[in-house]
């Protein structure tokens, strides 16, 4: 079965640079979620989109922005990168409406290293 | 206080034994709960979801939910060395709130 696709899988950036992470949800899934997982920590919710509209927002820095496109893929844009942004970034997708319980399936993640 | 609490472990069990993983949550209004397995450096993999009080079984896995006591548990029967991983408990209607995870070690 098709899974969530994320690219790139690894990314190395310098401080103050920008990065763009991409997520392609499971076919027919309409909701995308972004999570950040630091070393030894649990995943922290950043932001989510349902039918191309932002549906919820968590602890996402103002330096980050995201959107979901007409083909349902999503991009997380990160600017003015800081050392503390080094983490695993996961995208998850689900099928469902805003008023239903949605099982989320995670992609393989992008490992971002900021030097 | 973290919204979802788990014992970080490690929980060590011999191969073939039952592993019991527990999770408590603070929000009485929480309705949906999930167990994920995560190998080191890999992404969380959904094992079970549970929304109603009682037990839900899927193969070697059984999830239990007790809303009155605000706890969720995961039982793994016939534990295998390949089950050695971190098990994350999560709750959420849309965004997921995770516990810190319990590391399970299954020894041959």
Summed up:
The complex is a heterodimer of chains A (115) and B (108). Chain A has no helices and eleven strands.
Topology summary:
The complex is a heterodimer of chains A (about 120) and B (about 110).
Chain A: E1 5-7, E2 10-13, E3 19-24, E4 31-37, E5 44-50, E6 53-57, E7 64-68, E8 74-78, E9 87-94, E10 105-106, E11 110-114
Parallel strand pairs in A: 2-11
Antiparallel strand pairs in A: 1-3, 3-8, 4-5, 4-9, 5-6, 7-8, 9-10, 9-11
Chain B: E1 4-6, E2 11-14, E3 19-25, E4 33-38, E5 45-50, E6 54-58, E7 61-66, E8 71-76, E9 85-91, E10 97-98, E11 102-107
Parallel strand pairs in B: 2-11
Antiparallel strand pairs in B: 1-3, 3-8, 4-5, 4-9, 6-7, 7-8, 9-10, 9-11
Q: What this model shows, in words?
A:
- The complex is a heterodimer of chains A (about 120) and B (about 110).
- In chain A, a hairpin with a 2-residue loop joins strand 5 (about 45-50) and strand 6 (about 55).
- By secondary structure, chain A is mainly β.
- Chain A is built from no helices and eleven strands.
- In chain A, about 0% of the residues lie in helices and about 50% in strands.
- In chain A, the strands form two sheets. In chain A, strands 2, 4, 5, 6, 9, 10 and 11 form a seven-stranded mixed beta sheet that branches. In chain A, strands 1-3-8-7 form a four-stranded antiparallel beta sheet, with no helix packed on it.
- The model of chain B has no long low-confidence stretch (mean pLDDT about 95).
- With about 110 residues, chain B is an all-beta fold.
- In chain B, the strands form two sheets. In chain B, strands 2, 4, 5, 9, 10 and 11 form a six-stranded mixed beta sheet that branches.
- Chain B is globular and about 40 Å long.
- Helix content of chain B is about 0%, strand content about 55%.
- In chain B, strand 9 (about 85-90) and strand 10 form a beta hairpin.
- Chain B has strands spanning about 5, 10-15, 20-25, 35-40, 45-50, 55-60, 60-65, 70-75, 85-90, 95-100, 100-105.
- The termini of chain B are far apart.
- Chains A and B meet through strand 4, strand 5 and strand 10 of A and strand 5 and strand 10 of B.
